Amino acid sequence: MKTYEFKDLERFLSEDDHVFGNKIGTFSTISDIQNRTSETLDWISNKYQSPIDYIHNSPANVILSPPIDPGELHAKVLNKKTIILSKNPKLLFARVANALFVEQKKHMISPSAVIEEDAKIGANVHIGNNCYIGKAVIGDNTVIMDNCIVQDDVTIGNNVLVKPGVQLGLGGFGFVRDENNDFVSFPQLGGLVIEEDVDIGPQTCIDKGSLSVTLIGRGTKIGAFVKIAHNVIIGQSCFIGAQSFIGGSVTIGSFSWIAPGSMLRDQIKIGSRSTCGLGSVVVKDISDNELWLGNPARFVRILTEIN
User: Fold this and answer.
1) Which distant-in-sequence residues (6+ apart) come within 8 Å of 273 by Cβ?
2) What is the spatial distance between Cα 247 and Cα 290, in angstroms, rounded to a whole number?
3) Which CATH class name applies to 6-100?
4) pLDDT at position 307, please?
5) CA torsion angle for 145, 149, 154, 158 (degrees, to 10)?
6) Is 12 exposed, middle or buried (0-12, 13-18, 19+ CB in 10 A)?
7) 165: Cα separation from own chain's centroid
8) What is the pLDDT of residues 133-167, one digit of tens each?
9) What is the four-CA torsion angle of 13, 18, 24, 26, rounded to 10 degrees?
């Protein structure tokens, strides 16, 4: 187990971060609050009501804390511990933990993957076992885990994570009735564009557009068992919770939050920085910065902070 010192943290600190106490504290592990030790890199949520008490009671030698008055800390704590004050300790912790404790696996293309000759595969791409890649474009440093299907006319940007069992770019579920009231398939000739830094959870299905494209914006995170229908446009840095259903031609503005189990009727528009609460059934348009809840979903209040 590797031991880290304060110097290993310095590259993660911003000019707004401040260090108090000694700078000789070490850490070698991360854990939940119940399993902290002196060697744990500890952090305090901005929502915690008594950071001073937390610091006094924590066994950890290195603690990431929201802004406090260091004068309220006992001298023996300052002599023993390294306290780093940050506007967002959770974010700082995530960056440190991802860099120092998350194993970076070597990318490879599995011999069991089937890849069409016309596919364009970027540098340092991982394609897992039993995947199928059609005439698609896959950007650099993208990871496609086991048992995924990427159909023709799909473009995936750089640094995308596609978890097991995902299906990308299948034709949408569109039909029109004929003179005999029988169904005729509507042509599904569009594409699917997934921009950079998107995460897609296991067993999720995202359809391509019918005559245009389905678009997933940069930095959006999509949970497990999500269905996104044809012609959907999702902005950047959105959160789409597990088991949500996004109907055809829905538009979701950037930085919005669709909580798990939500259902969005086709052709509605969700504004930027808005939230659909847990299990919401949304049948009306939602403007920017609004919280809606329920079945059918109803307006609750204006949101003043980003999700």
Assistant:
1) 253, 254, 255, 256, 288, 289, 303, 306, 307
2) 20
3) alpha beta
4) 60
5) 0
6) middle
7) 17
8) 999 999 999 999 999 999 999 999 999 999 999 99
9) -50
* 146's tokens: 């086991």
Instruction: Provide CATH 3.40.1390.10 ranges for the chain.
Output: 6-100
For residue 24, which phi and psi values (nearest 5 degrees)? -115, 5
Query: How far is 60 from 212, CA to CA, in rounded Å?
Result: 54
Q: Cis ω on the peptide bond leading into residue 51 (within 30° of 0)?
A: no
What's the predicted TM-score (pTM) here?
0.87
Rg over CA atoms, the chain: 24
Residue ranges of the chain assigned to CATH 2.160.10.10: 114-302
CATH number belonging to domain 114-302:
2.160.10.10
| Contact (Cβ atoms closer than 8 angstroms) between residue 204 and residue 226 | yes
Mean pLDDT of the chain: 93
Residues designated catalytic: 230
Residues 177 and 42: their CA atoms lie apart, in Å, by: 61
Residues 77 and 53: their CA atoms lie apart, in Å, by 11
Q: What is the DSSP string of 252-285?
A: E-TT-EE-TT-EE-TT-EE-TT-EE-TT-EE-S-
Count other Cβ atoms within 10 Å, centred on residue 3. 10
Position 190, amino acid:
G
For 286-303, how does the pLDDT look when each residue is reduced to its tens digit (9 = 90+)? 999 999 999 999 999 999
